[in-house]
Amino acid sequence: MNIDSQSAVDDLPSLPQVLIHIVETVYQDEVGVQDLASVIQRDTALTLRLVAVANSGRYGRALASSSLRQCIVRLGLSSVRSLILAMVFQAFVDGFKGLGPAYLRAFWWRSATAAHFARRLAHLLGYPNADEAFLAGLLMNCGELVLASRSPAEARRDGTEAEQLARERRLFGTDHARVGADIALRSGLSPDLADALCFHHEPMENLRDAHQLVKIVALSSEATGQRVAAEPAWTLSDGLFGLNQSLLRELLAAVRDEVAQLAASLNLKEEEGEQQADVMRLQQMLSNIGQAEEATRDLLRARAPVAFEQALERGLGLLLQIRTSLLFVLDEGGGLLEGGYGDDGKPGFAVDLATSTSRVAQAFQQRVILKLAAAGGSVLDQQLCRRFQPDSCYAVPLVHERRCVGIVVAGVAEGRVLPGADQAFLFGLLRQQIAAALQQLRESLCDRGAVPELEDWQQRVREAIHEAGNPLSIIRNYLDVLRMRIGDQTLARGEIALIGEEIDRIGSILLRLRESGDESVPEEPLDAAQLVAEVADVFRKTLCTTRKLGLTTDLPSRPLPVRGGRGQLKQVLVNLVKNAVEALPEGGSIALAAAPVYAESGAPWAEISITDDGPGLTDPMMAQLFRPVSSTKGEGHSGLGLSITKKLIDQMGGRLTCKTGMTGTRFQVLLPSGDADR
Q: Hey, what's the torsion of the CAs at 535, 76, 308, 341, to 10 degrees?
């Protein structure tokens, strides 16, 4: 039988209980990469599919990765969610491939045990990549799951491992070890990992000179009772690694306890009726996801807070039986919560987050749901409780990308809690969807309100151009004189030429700003990777050196063509790197990266990222990130840098996004590829 590796990966089934846990985690507020990796790696099928997609050509990466965390970062949370949902839907369509819960549960136990044993053994032996060993153990028998899904009637393990292999070869003309190795290679995993899957049934004498990972997986297979070779586990552990029998027993005992605790956390059950209940719960979760997306469509269409609040009240009433609600929106400056919008669109409440003692403000600052007090305390809380009588009032924070963007005050019938136990998952989904829609509305309002202010700033810039031109001309003339004096026999001549180029570029920028006509960017193909390297070199030799900052680059070996003006793109890069430099204390680091990527439509783009490990941006700064504002950097800074940066990228047909947190800030620039052949 010919096994198509890609379709085989797409068709692998999973246990409903494991999928429930994964779906719950991926839709949590502020879920991190490590949280996602730790829950996804509990399932062989999803792990293999995610790695295969992340290493596929559609993401344009030259180097494949065996790290689950790296694969998650590469895909992004949105893509990971879509992948999981597609897998869950497919499971219902296929009826979990006709494989009974007993078989899937037993397969899960064997895979989890082998994975945890491989990781512990790797740590013990000092193998440099314990996560890779875990992944190899987890995928050790993925070929068996592929073959079983092809012939569910033969999906049994009622004989020895040798009999299992013989049955596979008779039915399919191959065995699960070879199928697993082929899938691993085609999924972009390392040849060593693929070899570990291929040779884990080999006898000890054939394994002595094998790669360390191959031997680790072979012992993991033997220790968990999944090997054809006749050697006892302690003989293999001693022969391959010099580990004695008592140490092997201790490892196995620790692994069994670890897997048993994991199974308990996943609520794996033996009873058939409870298995069916889990399938029904998973189906309900899928229904909740669809309901949440449907309920927030009107929110995404809202163009003003009043319309948003009306759509919000309809959605909450329909899905959660919340009879009344009131929206508070974080203002542009990030210091006020505005709510109680009238027909004129103006807010009736303005809550100062710096001074307010209300529970509304506390819920915002602490990002937790709080019940409002009907008597005593803040008058605002009492007013809201009076308005919602006889319902109880709860202040619910709306968090989007780790930033609180508003509050919903919800009224529920007395005696009920928010959220109810039977609606916790749906409630969490709605909060996420509402927060995302509210942030979109806030950005839209900022864009609409920014036009007059931007024109004022542009006028001020034009007025300064004439004065700026004089000192630039003087500096340029002195550079020419200096270059003639030092002659050609010095390394400094190249540095002086670079300074001259930068001064000329400043002059070009000023001329372009002075002209009020067409501001379009010339359609010139240029190598973005080379330009990133040049900018990095300039900063490495100047500001990064004086401030003792580290600067690294991760660039493709091939050209990365984009269309646009070289000066414009260089201005974008200089602005973003300079911002990162100024945000960092001594000893900080900046990482520049560029790579080809592909949109979901298949269109090629070039991605450039600038990441620093600084303190991150505050909520008020993020709220006005791409608007021309008064700079907080002190004298000599106009506050125009990011607004001009975004404008230039918009003119080039690109996109600029920012993510920030306590561990740093990352700006991502996406530009249409300039390679017609891509």
A: -60
